[in-house]
Amino acid sequence: MARDPSPAGEERVRDADRSQNTILAAARDEFAEYGLGGARVDRIAERAGLNKRLIYYYFEDKEKLFQAVLEQVYRDIRDEERKLRLTELEPATAVKRLIEFTWDYYREHPEFITLLNSANLHKARHLSESKRARELNSPVIETLAAVLERGRKEGVFRGGVDPVQLYVSIAGLAYFYLSNSHTLQAIFGRDLLAPKARAERLSHMTDVILGYLLNA
Amino acid sequence: MARDPSPAGEERVRDADRSQNTILAAARDEFAEYGLGGARVDRIAERAGLNKRLIYYYFEDKEKLFQAVLEQVYRDIRDEERKLRLTELEPATAVKRLIEFTWDYYREHPEFITLLNSANLHKARHLSESKRARELNSPVIETLAAVLERGRKEGVFRGGVDPVQLYVSIAGLAYFYLSNSHTLQAIFGRDLLAPKARAERLSHMTDVILGYLLNA
Amino acid sequence: MARDPSPAGEERVRDADRSQNTILAAARDEFAEYGLGGARVDRIAERAGLNKRLIYYYFEDKEKLFQAVLEQVYRDIRDEERKLRLTELEPATAVKRLIEFTWDYYREHPEFITLLNSANLHKARHLSESKRARELNSPVIETLAAVLERGRKEGVFRGGVDPVQLYVSIAGLAYFYLSNSHTLQAIFGRDLLAPKARAERLSHMTDVILGYLLNA
Amino acid sequence: MARDPSPAGEERVRDADRSQNTILAAARDEFAEYGLGGARVDRIAERAGLNKRLIYYYFEDKEKLFQAVLEQVYRDIRDEERKLRLTELEPATAVKRLIEFTWDYYREHPEFITLLNSANLHKARHLSESKRARELNSPVIETLAAVLERGRKEGVFRGGVDPVQLYVSIAGLAYFYLSNSHTLQAIFGRDLLAPKARAERLSHMTDVILGYLLNA
DNA sequence: GATGAATGAGATTTCATTCAT
DNA sequence: TATGAATGAAATCTCATTCAT
Questions:
Q1: Which residues form the HTH tetR-type domain (chains A, B, C, D) (predicted)?
Q2: How many domains are contained in chain A?
């Protein structure tokens, strides 16, 4: 039986897809490391092992590529958040789980933090111009609302807590520590990313949020 | 009597100082708006209304200028922190005061936030190379330690609270909300900087921190 | 009866011809709009609704395509000129007819003008390399010679008029006005292509040529 | 007496002026030879013997440079036209003088022709955007009007001749022959720029215009 | 005959920096 | 102290063309 030299249509498509994804991953790393302004298209091509021209072929220009990267990293975190299944846990456990998840995700995806900072430096123009911005809303907000409500009903949580505010607070406690770890270290002289320091931070964050939420 | 075309020594020095400060302010705005990578030396000169060459004359190169800007904005916030006089207040009031100060300062100095983000994107290299990094340590840490200790002694605060962790947490609650306001708005569709939203955020932050600190 | 997926030979040939003509028309428009240097192969493919590769398949490269376009537009005008039948008219009427034809043809085929300008910018290299250049000679020259001779014999036209010079003059009177209408308009502030202005130009051209030719 | 190493202020200014003029001349030649689309900024810098960056320093970008070139060549021809002093001549001599001038100027400045063609290919956008477009109006129009009027009064010229139409016609007779000399040659097989052919063309043009203008 | 993916060379433009005074 | 002119290196992006079916 002879080898078929012409691949099926789907396979051809997959090649284009693969190239696009390779570029996307390379771009994500480059943008994360240098920011939008400091990123170099040449370096992205090099990282991807693909011709620079192909980047323009698929993504039009640097700005659009950045937008594509942003959409991608948001989709990634949302996918993970969707897997959390917080409603199946006790309210306090659910909140603890969310704090841990947030902390771990940010730690394991430092690119997410720098990319978000870059996006905000540009006033999130790349997101507001995105047609998919709608889909990027966090699925956690709704689950967290349910968790808070259940906790309140069961008498363990205080009432009147806005789930968006709480979500932002949890994020903020983790984000600031990790995003600014270099300046904090330069100024305080502590190694904030040493295992012990990291454990202490997570513990502190949990104390703060639960200390606030739990009824005495 | 002939006009003297060359100003006296002191005057020249004062001019030099003024030029330096003008450049510094222009650079701060430019770096804040575009980040280190996106900032343009030409634009800084234009903002300052001074010749580009002067920038190199006084600050050697773009990186050193960025470093000078960073040191300056840190000195500015530390100066303000020093005016807080938290020890003169009741512990809970002192903490509330610190939260409000942090929130207001970040709000009124958005350039501080973007500059810090830029510094961290570059792994705070500009700070660690600075000879004045030592002076940039926050005077609040020590005062906050005293406040926490007094609160604990008076029985109003829980014990075992690390002042650095708390300081970072307060900063984080404010910083993340303001730094990421553009992406948050693009995704949640809320205007986070409307007066009402701002008041709610400050109120929530205070609730979280005091809820955590105060004994029942 | 099974569907035949491959069209019959003749059909395929007809498809090929059609594709070639589609490309040719698209290329003519593109070259006319942007010149040889400014034309984009991508845009030609887009205009033709065909794959870019086909252009190379049929025409080898951009230069050869331009050459093919040039030959085509010359063939087109020569075909129209052949339909004029000037010898069947009175000499003065024949000349008037030629002036009107020239004016109308240039007006209705602005692409002819810009293509000729492009060809001349490149020193007509695309024509001199063409094997069909011979066929591009105007059939009008000979008829015009006959018309002039008859007019002279009948005593209505002056003698000693070179038909090529006259042909070029008629063309020039129309061509310059239309080719340079944009700059003329920018400078004189008149709208040269308004109906009234157009009628005046044709009238003037006829006056000039007949004023020159006709005996008193 | 020591050489003064610092040139006077005016001399410094002249250096910048000289650079600008050098660039302008180089750009004029390049644009004339290759058109706007085909011109290369690199080649302009090379022709000028100056750093490519300087072109952007003085002229912002390629389009603005083209605009500056256009303004310049228009100013040049207008300056020459102003020197004509047609009103001092007999009407018929004045018109002959204008025809000769137009013919000679176009012959000696082939760049003017190709630049105008380029400008028109771009719909004279570079002129209409120019603030100096007003100044580019030909001074000849008014003088020609006076000449025509005087000729009519003296009974040598026909009446009712629009000076703009006549100006355009004279230009057209010369322009078309020279602008399209390459295609004409490729098609007619004549060398249109040989001395004899040139003399014949000028003679023919004069015959046409005066044949039209002069009363019998 | 027809096509989407890919590429190398080169285009315009940008930018930090230095020169010359 | 201050400045306009000038530059080399490198950035983004373009374009005609070819590859692989």
A1: 17-77
A2: 2
